[in-house]
Protein: Major facilitator superfamily associated domain-containing protein
Amino acid sequence: MMLSVRAWISSRFLTFFMTWAVFQSYWGLWLAHRGFSTSEIGLAIGCSLMARAVTVALIYPAVNRHATLLRLSRIVPWAVTAAAIPYLFVAGLPMLLIMSTAFGLIYPIMLPLNETLATVAAKRGLLVYGPTRALGSLGFMIGTLATGWLTSALGADVLAPTLIGSCLLMAIVGIVQPRDEEALRICGSGACGFADLARDRTFLLSLTIAALIQGSHAAYYSFGAIRVGELAPPAAVPFLLVLAPVSEFALFSLARRRVEGLGVRTLFAVGSAIATTRWLLLAFAESWPLLALSQLLHAGSYATTHLAFTVYVRDRVGVEVQGAAQGLYASLAMGLSTAVLTVIAGHIIGASFELALFTMSVVSLAGILLVPLIRTDRKAST
Structure:
């Protein structure tokens, strides 16, 4: 069986984000169920995110220099599945920290790997990024609802087996071959790519803005399910959580013209402003309708920021350096900044959830101050 490149990459986004829904939306809930405190949860997730920062910035580009994107896409999902199995036997904080770090060194490689596949294929005219990435949002919706239903029916103990099962599904789907394979048999430039990107002032500004806005999601990602559980009945929790990927799906589906046409600077400014509004709204929400509204703003806080950076990489960064660019984005914007802010939020939340969210709003607002410095007048060659 073979699929078109667009269908093949869409299926990868779909199945990966099903696993991501379990790990990101419910992992804090699972850890709390296992008896860990909020500060311990923040520390464990922080270790995982620090490991992510290392692996996607250094290990992924280094491996991609010797193995093609296509080969990595077949091997990594099986390694992720194997790395998830020990979660079934976690007992005590030291073991949790070791497991979180080990899993964080393998699982996050899927993020820049899928994004690099998509941006390379988009640059070569094999797909349109927005609608293709929308399948990832659909996968997140499916994963969120399915996991919520399983948790309600069977309890939080089901979360670790659910993560392992979804990772196995991702690995099995990865066996399918794409047409136009040669377009994806690309090796990256490794460390040399970092030198090129370090000389690109606009890339560094875009990366910094993305790190501030995406990092501000730390409190929500790690403790959002707990917050939702405080404001809504248990049966409503998965439906409230799924509103975020629903809004994200809508934005990516419309991204080809209506959103991408706004330009990188405008997209970053919108992302910063909406993220700030979202965290303030979530901080002062006392009922589920306001909580639902804050969830719908995910399209602006996360998806718009992600799209801004992706559009810049697709249009302004050469194909041979895109792996390094996506690695830095996953490392710094989605990893290191989130790791640091997760640890901070974990300590603040013990005293005040509202104060933690207010801190996140200040971080996201800082991004808008750098937007006027971005220049987008340079095109990259294919």
